[in-house]
Amino acid sequence: MPHPPAQYVELQAASNYSFLRGASHPEELFLQARAQGHAALAITDHATLAGMVRAHLHAAQTHVRLIVGARVDLTDGSALTLYPRNRAGYANLCGLLTLGKRRAGKGGCHLAWPDIANAHADLMAILLPGITDPATPDFAKMLAHTHDIFGAHGSVALVRHWRPRDAQRLAAIANAAYAHRLSPVVTNDVLYHTPQRRMLQDTLCAIRNRTTIDDLGVLRQSFAGRHLQTPAEMCRLFARYPAALARTIDIATACQFSLNELRYQYPAEAIIPGLTPQQALETLTWQGAQNRYGVTIPAKITAQLHHELSLIGQLDYAPYFLTVHSIVMFARSRAILCQGRGSAANSAVCYVLGITAIDPAESDLLFERFISAERREPPDIDVDFEHDRREEVIQWIFETYGRDRAALCATTIRYRGRGATRDVARAMGFAEDTVNALTAQVSGWSSTPPSTDDIAAIGLDARDPRLALTLQLAAELIDFPRHLSQHPGGFVLTQDRLDTLVPIEPAAMADRQIIEWDKDDIDVLRFMKVDVLALGMLSCLAKCFAFLGRHKNINLNLATIPQNCAQTYAMIQVADTVGVFQIESRAQMSMLPRLKPACFYDLVIEVAIVRPGPIQGDMVHPYLRRREGREAVTFPTDELRSVLGRTLGVPLFQEQAMKIAIICAGFTPGEADQLRRSMATFKMTGGVAKFRDKMLHGMVARGYTPDFADRIFRQIEGFGSYGFPESHAASFALLTYVSCWLKWHHPDIFCAALLNAQPMGFYAPAQIVRDAEQHGVKIYPISINHSRYECTLEHQPGTKLLAVRLGFCLVKSLTADAATSIATHRGEQPFANIEDFWRRTKLSRTNMEHLAAADAFACLNLSRRQTLWQVRALPDQDLPLFAAGEHLAETAITLTPHLPAQSVIADYRATGLSLHNHPLIFLRETFANLGLITAAHIGHARDGSKAHIAGLVLVRQKPSSAKGVMFMTIEDETGTANLIIWPSLYERQRRIILAARLIACRGMVQREGAVIHLIANDMTDFSTHLDALSHDETMVKITARNFH
Amino acid sequence: MVYAANPAARAQGLHQGMAVSTAQARSPGISLHPATPDDDRAALHRLAQWCARTLCPLVAPAPPDGLLLDITGTDHLFGGEPAMLAHIASRFASAGIHLRAAIAPTVGAAHALARFAALNFICVSPAGLADALAPLPVAALRLPAASLDILAQLGFAHIGPLGQTARAPLARRLGAALLTRLDQAYGRIAEPINPLPDIAAPLVHKNFADPVLAPAAIAHALHALLAQLLALLTAQGLGATALTLTCTRSDATSQILPIGISSATTSTTHLSRLLRACITNIAPEPGIDRITLHAATQVLVRPASPSLLAPDTHTHTDLADLIDIVANRVKNAKIFRTLPTASDIPERAARNASPLARITTTWPPNLPRPTRLLSPPHPIDVLAALPDQPPAQFIWCRQRHRIIRADGPERIFGEWWINACETHAVRDYFQVEDQTGQRFWLFRRGDGTNHQTGDLSWYLHGFFA
To answer: What is the ipTM of this complex?
Structure first.
């Protein structure tokens, strides 16, 4: 549609990236601008450019030109909008915002006129009078500053307020502007795209001011007409100020800067002097290949490396690979375990450089999943590091690349159902209890507010006008950006100063800084990003390798673990996988006996298959059916066999989806990658339908039936947003295999390392310890004369296995300083008694009480109670006059000894586990009388038989893919049992299900092969039995882990 | 946080101190009421007052839910301790209050037994004290939570064994406070009750040997009573917030005259002026036997030593006195002041408030408003150009006003959160001056563009000077 010649350009519009001020998404502003015939629109968010990339995208789509700008509020109360005229001006604006944010700390921006003066070059400015009285000297001062700094590039805004004396005020401002040789310019100070958003804007205002809409009063944005107006209407309203209207065109014309001009530069890596980055990368690559394969590199690899290197050279990505290589080299030099994950494992270059661990010689890589010429998007390499040492890597990056060249990505936190409902309900003046009741009806990630039924369920009347308004406004608020947060590990690194590309703000964590743009924005602008991620299992494995070297003199690492160990796979097949990577969860464990993984590729499938994606895509069952031989494995064509052969004809991985598109539907590799991306959640790309037609037509043209083509497409679509790339699954499967191998061959070491890497994974220390004991590992208790901070290993005469000595890290509430100092003070000389311990360690009495509660003095032949009795006699502070042996003169006191059950409960209370007994042993007689059976019994029960069982609640899980079904794992002294709780039962017995620490369940046994579940019919809270055990009625904390 | 839970809620596993969200997750649909600790304290206080009047004089509230009564010397009035306990139980039951109570020789024991004894009501003699205490949990000893935790860990569950343990080692490990509590429970050291001073309502009265009729005599008596009453109040640092004058006549009828006071006071001049004004309302026939003067009170917050910097206090007091006089003299007088409210809707920009309310917000200075608004606004016929031009003329009361000057529009939006009809409503206000120099405030419903915003009818809403 041709636009009429513009007579007006809106130069002042805040999007909802002016958090809690603007009430429209950037895309809404641009769509409205196009509909109203605007040729250009400036986005001037409050002290941020966070929404600018979105605006940039939508400007391109709507053909309304984006004028980049920002509003800054100065410390003296004046406000300006600033617009870069060119790239240099943009850099100045970014620098200015960075300065203001650094000064103000998280969330603010402190700037004053001198800062503007320093950064004014190549910027246009509009002074915003706001409600300042134009007759005051303050206003004159602001005008003078504006003129002094910007001269002819300065203007003064004329904004209709729709208040009394508007005409006089505008005339006064215009006259004052002329008097200071500044041009008046019309703006409309836009806050939302249509008048209908006024209610939401009022609500945002109340949320921002932490008040209610009723009490908001004068804090409300009181000026009318804050929506985007048509150019014609603006011309009518300001017919008296033709020059001020024309000035909008002048400014728009002068400010031609576009985000397209941002030339991102990789940081130069001068690893090999005298070589270009590409030459350096090639050198390193071929050296790496020889390290991996020896002198003769397989032909397949040579070809692949040539292919990759030429594409990398063509796209100029060499510096990026070098950077990631440097980071990985640093980690190696510090002996920090790391391994690449994600699509990077599709690259042979990444493999030979040691970034990833999947050998391209043994797998079928699809490099285009990683880098494609069509995408023209920088590659994304994600590297996992040991979770407790990742900070070393992060700080090294900041130091090496400089804080002005390295920063973390932002994550835009958006309103979801619960947050929107909570904030709006508060703003609408609902009492806190009602607010809580309302939000309790919405799960955290829901994208809708509570429904009318939900409202009725909590006894509120949905017809109440306020409530109806609340729900309506909450629905509008959902998906609004709320604030910026820190990405878990996404680094942006540049050659030039980063603050000339994007404003940087301090993060909530000390020594971190984040840019204003998130991962998606970075992708659009083709910035390079390295994900430095934390993985608990890598810490655990690093500790395993260290223990192996120290205690068994075996030197192994991730690459040298013996492959294809039959015993390891045998262990996996019977789901004996507590504590290992990925395949330890209840869902994974129930799949293992059916899948019976026997080789590495089976593990890759196992890791990929138990995920929301394949479940949604209706693929697990076809695969399992085929795997178990219950369904024939057929391929309509050989070409499809080549793609899907390894997964029995069922597409499981993103690479397969792409290959089907390439081989069976004639896509180019780049197009296939776009297909994959269009299915992902990233909304900006859009257009799945386009690919669907192309795919179906392509497949039918190659002789597939439309029905088959449609089925394949739906299967691919199903995991579009969740599916793993095969390379990623393979990377993870490697860690799975290594952890399983260690668990099978060195259960002692694995147990100690896993305990030391806590918290991580699915199981608590109690289950890890119990599992190790069942595998013959001797576990020794925490002891002041034997333990160190971490769990350690002790040689046992006569057996090959080492014993695990629990460490002080397991003692609840014991301060870390105290826990680490005990072993130091002990040295070679064991503590003789409590007083000796106290004098040498100088621990506070509170810390000594925590140790006493953990029974750590048992090695002195003192019971918990005796220890506590003596510890309590110690003075709070170290009194020099306190004579040794004073307490010996005391009357002897006989303390009631603990009953065995009390002892176990006390163990749980102080350390979360007990080496003595399972608490349920003491209740077994009672339970047997009630007709309850044990978890071990369930293991032998017939399918369909009735069972009544009780256990400690270990895990509650309500996966989003399971449609409201809850899975619960309970434990008794014989083992664990898995319960399935249907939504109807959950609703009926929610209180018990969520609250019980010890629960009894009546249900029906369901056997599917080796997988046994109990379908719950009725639950009873048995927690009081536990309390009765301890007799003193103190609560035992056996905390279940809740997963969603 | 859950502040209190009734038996039904406790049966569902809800308890005091639990997070509200947890409680709701466990029992959706529970009925939640905001906690009102101040009201609870006041109610306990009233209960204490009732006990002081009807059971025994020495009563102390033991918040949050207890009362401590020193019944020494009063139990015989009820027929002994068990009978008194039964009496108390029945009185509370008839008032619908769930009660547990114990009579014991010591405060500590009574406290412990009332809360932890197996029976709801128990009466313990000095001889039975030790036996009664022995099986109670150590939690009954009024000890801090930290001490209870240590005792539990050491295996001391009941008071009995604890009482028999050697004292010095115990004190060393758990502090002397433990011994104090034990000794208080066993009566080895005394523990006095400290009843609150204002449990008894200030009340003075005068009996007349011969019934009085003459206003002068009544006035004289009132003057004396007021002096007594004020002496009582001043001694306790209290101010009167209301007076009740009760005249008991010789025919056994009585007349009760409430006298309202707007702010707590001990001013003799002010109160006697109010009392004098009251005398005309007294109907003494056939003669007054007895006059009672009773004051409702609150703690008097004394202004800091009078200074020239706080003239405000003075005018405030004077105004309060005036308001009292007017309010007590004019039947059903409605005295209020008008306060600004932050609202764009002119009708809602002011509210009536108590005459002594303080001004917290002011009217925005940049929004000129007529002093008085026409209520409701008068419909008028207007000639004006759409969408937002000021009127050229209007007809009001069959009179034509030609407009010479105008300012506007001032655009005002409906307050959508108050009334759904106002969601889209817009008023465009104009201040206009006619040919005679009269100035009017007019508005049109609707913004002149969007019909949803109003029907374009015009109104006169007020006059400017």
So the answer is: 0.70
